Amino acid sequence: MSYLGIGVSPGNVPIHHRSNLKVIDKRVRLAELILRCLICGLAVLAAVLIGTDSQVRVIFSIQKKAKFTDMKSLVFLVIANGLAAAYSLVQVIRCILSMIRGSVLFNKPLAWAIFSGDQLMAYLNLAAVAAAAQSAVFSKLGQTELQWMKLCDMYGKYCNQAGEGVASSVIASLSMIVLSGISAFSLFRLYGNSGGKGNAK
């Protein structure tokens, strides 16, 4: 029995149903949209910064050009950021369409697909950032035991721009972790009492 959206539990305790659910859902969807736009922008920025990074130095009358393809970890990072940007763009469009239609929840297969996609993108980008960060440390500090030079002493501009790209990727990866939590919340609440009856509107 309910009046004005307020139900009564078996213990005669008032319970708020749809009004609170809709408010929470709107906030979750807005946060998701903002995060996906942020991730898309940062991933594109990182891919452009690293993908266009190069510097030419003349050493003993020989021109040496440093570019991002010289470091496989940076190539991996550019690819990971490109995939993250494309995936985020698709999800931004989905979020906007969902908000326009006014749907509260979505069905379980779609929720699982989004959750799995978010997890995959988060792990992929974290792996790429970790590999790039390790290469950045070797480039900055060198490795005397292996006679690896401090490349950033020679290619300062190249290292600075690559560092900016890696920093953008780090922020994007952290945002993906938060987004994975949001998609997990959206998925597992479908198995709760309020969402367990079936698919969304």
Automatic annotation (TrEMBL):
Residues 26-174 form the Casparian strip membrane protein domain. It is a multi-pass membrane protein. Pfam families: CASP_dom. It is found in: Cell membrane. The keyword Transport does not apply. It comes from the Eukaryota. The chain crosses the membrane at residues 33-52, 73-100, 120-141, 162-188. Keywords: Cell membrane, Membrane, Transmembrane, Transmembrane helix. GO terms for cellular component: plasma membrane. PANTHER family: CASP-LIKE PROTEIN 2B1 (PTHR33573:SF64), CASP-LIKE PROTEIN 4A4 (PTHR33573). Homodimer and heterodimers. Belongs to the Casparian strip membrane proteins (CASP) family. This is CASP-like protein. It comes from Nicotiana tabacum (Common tobacco). The gene is LOC107786110.
